[in-house]
Design a protein that fits this description.
The complex is a heterodimer of chains A (about 120) and B (about 110). Chain A has about 120 residues and is mostly beta strands. Chain A has strands spanning about 5, 10, 20-25, 35-40, 45-50, 60, 70-75, 80-85, 90-100, 110-115. Classes of the chains: A mainly beta (about 120), B mainly beta (about 110).
């Protein structure tokens, strides 16, 4: 069955950096667009980024463009989110999910909590 | 950006009743690239409906989606206690992808 498992969350100070990972299994990762979505405490869902199977198409939300970078390792079935210049309002649960480019997010991970606090 | 406005904010209903959730887009969504997700407390969202009206695998037929253009509806017929949660609509046809603010269903 399809599994997406995020890791790398934690507490970081404002201005700091963190890298989230998402380990994928149960489907052909190298053929799937992948997305990152976050949810601040008590708030709704916010799409952050989408990356194509071959890295030739990458999109970001305005709120993270220039600070966050998405990448993937198809050989290792892994998705990454490199987060720099973190701010308090980046505090959220971060989910990786399949698709997002003209397809709905069929599968989601369980989420990784990122807390930005001094 | 396409803004999605969901209403009502909260819906309080009894088991067996029908819930009608609305999602209105600021501009027409092409090819009905509109999905609905359910999020129970402490859980990740799970897909219910895609392409405005196609049920995801394993979703009971009491969940149905309809609409086109800028107005979309999720209907839950015969509410069950496990249907409590927050429901989000999302458009996935235009970058940036956007979600509605959610409708909380209390049973």
């Amino acid at each position: 069955q399809v599994q997406l498992v995020e890791s790398g969350g934690g507490e970081v100070k404002p201005g700091g950096s963190l890298r989230l990972s998402c380990a994928a299994s149960g489907f052909t990762f190298s053929e799937a667009h992948m997305s990152w979505i976050r949810q601040a405490p008590g708030k709704g869902l916010e799409w952050l980024s989408c990356i194509a199977p071959g890295d030739n198409f990458i999109k970001y939300a305005d709120s993270v463009r220039g600070r966050f970078t998405v990448s993937r390792d198809n050989a290792g079935n892994s998705l990454y989110l490199h987060m720099n210049s973190l701010r308090a309002d980046d505090t959220a649960i971060y989910y990786c999910a399949t698709e997002g480019n003209y397809k709905p997010h069929e599968y989601w991970g369980q989420g990784a909590l990122v807390t930005v606090s001094s | 950006d396409i803004v999605l406005t969901q209403s009502p904010g909260t819906l309080s209903l009894s088991p067996g009743e029908r819930a009608t959730l609305s999602c209105r887009a600021s501009q027409s969504i092409p090819y009905n690239y509109l999905a609905w997700y359910q999020q129970r407390p402490g859980q990740a969202p799970r897909p219910l409906i895609s392409w405005a009206s196609s049920r995801a695998t394993g979703i009971p037929d009491r969940f149905s989606g309809s609409g086109s253009g800028t107005d979309f509806t999720l209907t839950i017929s015969g509410l069950e206690p496990e249907d409590s949660g927050v429901y989000y609509c999302q458009q996935y046809g235009s970058m940036p992808l956007t979600f509605g603010g959610g409708t909380k269903v209390e049973i």
